[in-house]
Design goal:
The chain is α+β, with helices and mostly antiparallel strands. It has one domain. The protein has helices spanning 21-26, 28-42, 51-63; strands at residues 4-8, 14-19. A two-stranded antiparallel sheet has the order 1-2. Strand 1 (4-8) and strand 2 (14-19) form a beta hairpin.
């Protein structure tokens, strides 16, 4: 991602994220994209819900 660098330690593990603030000042939508990536990464091990199951649950909640 433009404006973001990930630095690795001596064991090649991700340790530091460097963010170029000038990039995000020039392109505020890039900050929204970065936040979306962080959220997605933090949720990658959560259980998923199929679209059909989600739509069915929304329909049940509406009918109440």
């Amino acid at each position: 991602m433009k404006g973001v660098s990930i630095l690795l330690d001596e064991r090649r593990k991700k340790r530091i994220v460097q963010i170029d603030l000038d990039t995000f000042v020039k392109d505020p939508e890039a900050l929204d994209d970065l936040i979306d990536v962080i959220k997605a990464e933090s949720r990658k091990h959560e259980a998923t819900v199929s679209l059909d199951d989600y739509l069915a649950s929304v329909k049940r909640k509406k009918s109440r």
